[in-house]
Amino acid sequence: MKVAVLDIKGKETGRKVDLSDTVFAIEPNNHAIYLDVKQYLAHQRQGTHKAKERGEIAGSTRKIKKQKGTGTARAGSIKSPIFRGGGRIFGPRPKDYTQKLNKNLKRLARKSALSLKTKENSVMVVEDFDFDTPKTKDFVQILKSLGLENKKSLIVLGDSNNGVYLSSRNLERSEVVTNTELSTYKILNANNIVLLEGSLEGIETNLNK
Fold first, then answer.
1. What is the CATH number of the domain that holds 110?
2. How far apart, in Å, are the Cα atoms of 160 and each of 35, 166, 177?
3. Average pLDDT of each block of 10 consecutive residues along the chain (209 residues)?
4. Are 83 and 107 in the same domain?
5. What is the Cα–Cα distance from 53 to 50, expressed in whole angstroms?
6. Buried/exposed 70-94: b ≥16 CB within 10 Å, e otherwise
7. Where is this region: Disordered (predicted)?
């Protein structure tokens, strides 16, 4: 699949790159996408929620009143869940929410997501760029030129680039990742995917293993 390469002003450079059909033009597997996104969201949960139960509350263990003759229900401990300050019944406990998926399924999910975005004409290839000093204003100007100013965008770099990353960090609707950080969730969460030329080889190598 041939795609025109744009410059940072949004104009065609006259060059074209060949996007691999095995990555950008497969039949999407919706179930693989579902499983990968489900795993990603599950891994965002810390699982540190905890409430003290009856056995963990500090308090006296003496019987607080006699068994009979009070006219009220019997009660044996101040730590009972029915009293203020008592333990919580079936409260939340720390839990590990991590899920395991095999690598082939995760690759299939990412290829399916990229193929969906390509089919929607939401993927563009832009020549590599850099900033001498990080500057959000310059990054916003590039987004304007590409028609992405008010859209959720995902910019994929070939290698880590501190200048580009720092320039985009304050922008809520734009995210910069390297080709190794690409995930199914991030692909689907963006309206447009901007692939820098230097990222293509890494993406195709990683997803065609």
1. 3.40.1370.10
2. 28, 11, 8
3. 91 92 95 97 95 92 91 92 93 95 96 96 94 92 93 93 92 94 96 94 91
4. no
5. 9
6. eeeeeeebbbbeeeeebbeeeeeee
7. 49-77
